[in-house]
Amino acid sequence: MTREALELIFIGSAFIGSALLLISSLGTGLHVRVPVPHIRMPHPRIGHADNATVMPMVLGFLAMFGIGGLFGIALGGDIAVQSLLAFAAGAAGASLVFAIFTALHRAQGREPTALRDLVGRSARVVVTVGRDLRGTVQLTYDGSVQTLPAVADTDIPRGRDVVIVAVNGMAVMVRAHPPP
User: Fold this and answer.
1) Mean pLDDT of 31-60
2) What is the Cα–Cα distance from 67 to 39, expressed in whole angstroms?
3) Cα radius of gyration rounded to whole Å, the chain
4) Which of 42, 63, 67, 167 is the most exposed place for a label (fewest CB within 10 A)?
């Protein structure tokens, strides 16, 4: 392989990888579809990876592969040194993208609270609840204060403690705690 051909491969890899990585970071409004034939091959599964993680890793590898190869050319190394630098830089780029996505995944919040999970929990009436009057209750669940619309069979004044007994659409059905 000639030096010019290898240089062209590294420049193309750096340009295409960087450009596609930049485009993919612009958000979900831009979709680039590349038709690729589907080939079934058995492969081991190494944990969970989704397309939002794999594609940036591939693009990070591609961009850094080209940049590493160009550094190898600038240093005047032979083809083996240039290729080694290209693959090392590509692996470092893919690893960096993987580390960033791992940190972002850990920073994600838990699944949202389902109203049915609140049945049986205690709450406090914030806005009076009644038979024909939709009020509001508050409770602490999953470390945060939840404020929910509430209905009841009887009038329950503000400040009373209640128990959530059912879910009624987007509201909870509550019942007053018996006095101690």
Assistant:
1) 63
2) 30
3) 29
4) 42
Domains in the chain and their CATH numbers? 3-38+49-107 (no CATH), 115-176 (2.40.50.140)
Query: Which comes out higher in pLDDT, residue 37 or 125?
Result: 125
3-state secondary structure the chain: CCHHHHHHHHHHHHHHHHHHHHHHCCCCCCCCCCCCCCCCCCCCCCCCCCHHHHHHHHHHHHHHHHHHHHHHHHCCCCHHHHHHHHHHHHHHHHHHHHHHHHHHHHHCCCCCCCHHHHCCCEEEEEECECCCCCEEEEEEECCEEEEEEEEECCCECCCCEEEEEEEECCEEEEEECCCC
Q: What is the pTM of this model?
A: 0.51
CA gap 94, 30 in Å, rounded: 22
